[in-house]
Specification:
Radius of gyration: 17 Å
Structural class: alpha+beta
Shape: elongated
Distance between the termini: 19 Å
Helix content: 40-55%
Strand content: 25-35%
């Protein structure tokens, strides 16, 4: 995921909260229920959908849960090892967390932000920038090991050894 794509992604979160997300570079779906609004989108440039990243967020009265993913899907035979890896990686992460939807194996990285911190423009830019950088660094730190686990290319290293290597 490029830094530019991440920057635009987090910018879209702020625009959505301000009610100003009406940019034709984004395609998205919105599902509403009693508590949350779910937004799932992907960037479109010159009519072509960028396949490398999707993002979404849940908005409630108090928090915004933002996530990004690389469209990585874990096959059935690797799910238990990837789940262990994610648990170990999250133990050391102070700001966000990886998760895996066990049904389809989709891996995402989530960050929790306060709605109050995003409504004030002076705080929103700093908070979204921090969230963007943390998300990007988490993917950079762990993506190689996740690919190794998904493709069964860990050699004789255990999941604990892979985490230590990060």
């Amino acid at each position: 995921m490029s830094e530019q794509t991440q920057a635009v992604m987090w910018y879209a979160v702020k625009k959505y909260l301000d009610g100003e997300l009406n940019d034709d570079r984004w395609q998205y779906t919105v599902d509403e229920n009693e508590a949350n609004t779910f937004f799932h989108g992907y960037q479109v440039i010159d009519g072509e959908v960028l396949k490398d990243v999707k993002f979404g967020f849940y908005v409630s009265d108090y928090v915004v849960v933002c996530y990004s993913d690389f469209q990585m899907y874990v096959p059935e035979n690797a799910k238990s090892k990837v789940a262990e890896y994610i648990i170990r990686a999250n133990y050391h992460d102070l700001y966000g967390a990886f998760d895996m939807i066990y049904d389809d194996g989709c891996i995402r990285y989530k960050i929790l932000l306060s709605v109050n911190d995003l409504l004030n423009d002076s705080f929103a830019e700093a908070n979204l920038s921090k969230a963007r950088i943390v998300s990007m660094m988490a993917w950079q730190k762990h993506i190689e090991n996740l690919f190794r686990l998904i493709n069964g290319k860990t050699g004789n290293k255990s999941v604990a050894q892979l985490i230590e290597g990060c």
